Amino acid sequence: MAKKKESAEPELMKTWSLPTSMTIGSAVRAKGILQEIRARLPFAVRKALDLEGGILTLAMPETSRAIFRATSASTTEMLAEMEALPVIPREIEDILAISTSERRRWLEDGRLPSAGTRTVKLRGRARQITFHVFDPAVVVDILDRGAVDEWREHDIAAAAEKRRQSAMKAKLTRSLRKGKKKGTRKDGSNPSPLRGWDEFDAEGFLK
Questions:
Q1: Nearest to residue 56, comparing CAs of 74, 42, 207, 115?
Q2: pLDDT value, residue 103
Q3: Domain formed by 10-83, architecture
Q4: Confidence of residue 174 (pLDDT cuts 50, 70, 90)
């Protein structure tokens, strides 16, 4: 049996563990951090940086020592900024375990305060999209105080009250229509609410 051929170029390798304070416990945010750092690196070395299990790994061949050192230093510097990296929509949905409709509703009514907007170009397309981003410190605060559960309870109560008011309005509308229909004469006119008016009208004194 032929022996497995060993790599002719031993790899240079460095790893960084992404702390929870940076990822906020989200694998989606961890991937977003990887993509953010890759986007800031020279195109030729982006794929040399990878993520697995919350650990960033930079791996290059032995012959790329100078590039490896420069990329390693740049990655370390950028990681120092990642805790403050704004949280994007798909990340906040994963961190808070909320739906897209909840995110949009709570953003609109101010419960999820926006930290500004970001515009990106879709890969392979000319079209750009703009979306709201969120302050990671605010997201952590929302998560720690369990605000999402309170918001959902509030929304359930508000929806029930809205249904109750709609039902009352519909009932009142039906009642008014029914009363109007009962009080209409065959000729389409409405009788006067004044007592004795029908008899007065019947005598023809107004004709």
A1: 74
A2: 97
A3: 2-Layer Sandwich (3.30)
A4: confident
Calpha distance 133→115 (Å, rounded):
6
How far apart, in whole angstroms, are the C-alpha atoms of residue 5 and residue 207? Answer: 117
User: Comparing 189 with 16, which gets the higher pLDDT?
Assistant: 16
Residue 166 token pair = 């709609």
d(CA 148, CA 152): 6
pTM for this model (two decimals): 0.74
Query: Domain extents for the chain?
Result: 10-83, 86-178
pLDDT at 159: 87
Beta-carbon count within 10 A of 32 CB:
20
User: Encoding tokens for residue 87?
Assistant: 């949280």
Q: For the chain, first and last CA: distance in Å?
A: 122
